[in-house]
Amino acid sequence: MARRFSTVVFAVMVVAALVQSSKAETHEVGDDLKWTVPSNGSVAYQNWAAGETFLVGDVLEFEFTTGAHDVAKVTKTAFDACNSTNPISHKTTGPANFTLDTSGEHYFICTVGTHCSLGQKLAVNVSAARAETEFIVGDSLGWTVPSGGAVTYQNWAANKTFVVGDSLKFNFTTGAHDVAEVTKAAFTACNGTNPISHETEGPADIDLDTAGEHYFICTVGSHCSLGQKLAINVTTNSSTSPTTPPSSSTTPTSPSPSGGPSQSPSGSTTPPSPGSAPSFSVAGLSATLLSVAAALLY
Ligand SMILES: *[C@@H]1O[C@H](CO)[C@@H](O)[C@H](O)[C@H]1NC(C)=O
Ligand SMILES: *[C@@H]1O[C@H](CO)[C@@H](O)[C@H](O)[C@H]1NC(C)=O
Ligand SMILES: *[C@@H]1O[C@H](CO)[C@@H](O)[C@H](O)[C@H]1NC(C)=O
Ligand SMILES: *[C@@H]1O[C@H](CO)[C@@H](O)[C@H](O)[C@H]1NC(C)=O
Ligand SMILES: *[C@@H]1O[C@H](CO)[C@@H](O)[C@H](O)[C@H]1NC(C)=O
Ligand SMILES: *[C@@H]1O[C@H](CO)[C@@H](O)[C@H](O)[C@H]1NC(C)=O
Ligand SMILES: *[C@@H]1O[C@H](CO)[C@@H](O)[C@H](O)[C@H]1NC(C)=O
Ligand SMILES: *[C@@H]1O[C@H](CO)[C@@H](O)[C@H](O)[C@H]1NC(C)=O
Ligand SMILES: *[C@@H]1O[C@H](CO)[C@@H](O)[C@H](O)[C@H]1NC(C)=O
Q: If DSSP states are collapsed to H, E and C, what string results for 84-109?
């Protein structure tokens, strides 16, 4: 039994590792109330659940005195009727953990005496966990002085959707490069004097904790002005799939090798000079780059 449980735990951990840093949470059912007969009826657990966000992989921890209470996972029908005849599963030893392994509604009751009809029952609605994404900046290029200039990282970021909770991995050799998050002004000027944060050891992982624009540069030598700089826009929304690129004019132009940073394909409506201000458009992204990016991503 314990072995099977640990196998399940292991499987959950593997899945969690695969979706990269999905942070499973443990919810202590009822908080201070714990798992008992509430004085004010089932509203107690309804209110508690309303204040929580349940994601697939999270754990419900029911804390109760063994013998005084128990926990049965039941169907909605059984939940509504407080019918404990054929529970889906049943745990009699407190504390008891239930892993919320599927999205949708999950129902729990206490099968002791009239506890359920007195309000010792809990319904939770579980949302699919979003796979938090770790982006490798530049993909196989890593974080270096790009031969194509600043447009390289601009194109890399162009049709990616960065969401709060995602992270960036700047893959560089310690000593050869670094990464500093800076203000927009410092980004534009390649000024590394007063960075918001500064990582000198590569590879460096940076969590995208806040929505909005984020600016990164390498402060070593003239690397930034040579194009080792990245601007991204982070959104809050997790539920939406990546938005389609803003430009409808993406007839891929022929690859422009060694195209200088300030070159942009004719007919494009992109603002000029990527070196001076980040442009969040895909114009200029060559067919080659697109297929390379797609191949690396999938
Ligand atoms: C129900 O009672 C619990 C404690 O027993 C309390 O925390 C909760 O606020 C109460 N809820 C309502 C709606 O009265
Ligand atoms: C309880 O559920 C079982 C099936 O799970 C059903 O056979 C039984 O009739 C139900 N009892 C009541 C009182 O509804
Ligand atoms: C329940 O989960 C919590 C947190 O994951 C853990 O600390 C606790 O040991 C678990 N309890 C049981 C009985 O597995
Ligand atoms: C559970 O969540 C789903 C999706 O958000 C929603 O459609 C459904 O109505 C919810 N169920 C309850 C009981 O709130
Ligand atoms: C980037 O855009 C191209 C075409 O515009 C599309 O095929 C590809 O799926 C996009 N990649 C991502 C990650 O959105
Ligand atoms: C980081 O760069 C090194 C050397 O270029 C490479 O071997 C390694 O696979 C890269 N790591 C990632 C996560 O891309
Ligand atoms: C760089 O930024 C600092 C403040 O962060 C400022 O004092 C300094 O003058 C700037 N240097 C240049 C060359 O703009
Ligand atoms: C970043 O995203 C926000 C919200 O979607 C938007 O208001 C803002 O204009 C974007 N900034 C850039 C530079 O695209
Ligand atoms: C995020 O998504 C929710 C529903 O999924 C929506 O209500 C909200 O307006 C969205 N926020 C933004 C900034 O798009």
A: CCCCCEEECCCCEEEECCCCEEEEEE
